[in-house]
User: What shape does this take?
Amino acid sequence: MPQSEAERTYQREYARTEKRKAVRRRYNQSEGGQAKNSAQCARWRAANPHKLVRVWRKYDLKRHYGLTLDEWNELFTSQGLKCAACGSSDPGRKSGHWSTDHCHTTDHVRGILCNGCNIALGQAKDNPATLRALADYLERGQLWHRSRMTVSS
Assistant: This one.
């Protein structure tokens, strides 16, 4: 039987009441409600994988760095769509994701890095002296040769 306009208005108003919200909360916290919600979420994730990636990306950027997706894109564009450290246009990951570099003391974002540069900074514990020492070591270019080894008898 079709609903009248008055019945639809009443149902809309009822759905907004605290009583209905409390009933819904209790149901969602019940075992049956959690199972139904979990199944609905799984179906949505399976049907919308591209949306899910975007939702999680937006959430992570905001939670970890306080950035919106537009702000992150603006920063990356200002870097020329390249790594801020080495200038590579390859993110260095199979997923194609770039790393958002930030200061662990102040939590300020410094730039967008490729995976290799991000790992190098992490291994050096963001210490400029360590990175300079490594650069000096590479520039010295001393190679170790087996022929220089002396065998004592």
